[in-house]
Amino acid sequence: MGRRKKNANASDGGNGCAATETANTVAKAAAAVAPAATSEREDEVDPYTIPLHSRQAAFAILWLLVYSFAMFTLPFGAFYGTRHVLADRFQIEGFPNTCGSVLAAVVTVNVIIMLYAFRGFREVEEEDRERSKQKAK
User: Fold this and answer.
1) Any residues with CB less than 8 A from the CB of 70 and at least 6 apart, and which?
2) Max Cα separation, the chain?
């Protein structure tokens, strides 16, 4: 609760001083043992870290959202951007303008799908490398 003053130990007839010296010796010994206990704890799993499979799932969902957002917005941008460029720069109007714009949107969608697939293949390769490194240990 409260700390004793040194004067209080002196009034005990010397027994308090011996107890204080013993407590200091025990504290020093505990401090010397503490680094060894810390190194043993490093091998244990930290309870506050996120497991690997949970991190992978979180990143998979994140990338799915990124590619979904790209799938929704970029084809519209490609369609209307191509439509604007064909009309203003090349003076192409009507059906050819619409066909070119639709073709640009379809190509954009296919590029996004290919990027998503390549990302999935790359993640599988990275997981295989990590597993082989863990088996080598």
Assistant:
1) 112
2) 109
